[in-house]
Model the fold of this input.
Amino acid sequence: MKKLISLLIVMAVCAVIVLPVAAADFVPSISYKDHPDLVGDPEITTPTAKELDLLITPVADALDTPPADRNEMEQELVDVYEALTDGDMKLPYPDDKNYVIRDLLDVSVIEKNDDPNADPVFYDGEVDLKLTFDLGVKPDVPVLVYIYDGEWKRIDNVINNGDGTITIELENTGVLAFCMESDLIVPPTFDKMNDELTLWITLMVVSSCAVVAMLALRRKLRD
Done:
């Protein structure tokens, strides 16, 4: 019995030691997040007289849409996400630092339609966009933004406005990846919180077993 108690106590101590390491070593989830909020009105410049709207689709929405119901942009977004997740596709980061994808979304321009249930009609002509997203980043945190349109290209016109927002200028539409250095502080995500919860539950179970075993041993010795 004493050996069992010792083993349980060692397991509990190990769980305490492992907890902060496991909680810190994570890649932010990009599959259970909404897209960053747009700030102000997007600037859309095109040579057409058609009325156009901006359509932003986070990867979470695309994944939640049944494959048979996905439009072409949603399917491309899912394909890119799966390729990145499987390691079949990599972003052309500029140096040896480790980066993570903070957000993954599709930016498209569609023809304006008052019917919210109508399928989007995508505009595939020339387009220039200027968009401001609220990422909640600190003024000194660099954010790399890449666009995928057959291949990944880094967007040069990215400005950290110092108020948590970034402004980007695009010459075409496609899948966007917002990336940050992995050693920078990133807000907790769905996956990270689940990992921490699992570790805490494991710790509580092991600790409870140790306490129960100790009480049982004391009762046996009294008897």
Observations:
- Residues 106 and 175 are 4 Å apart (CA to CA).
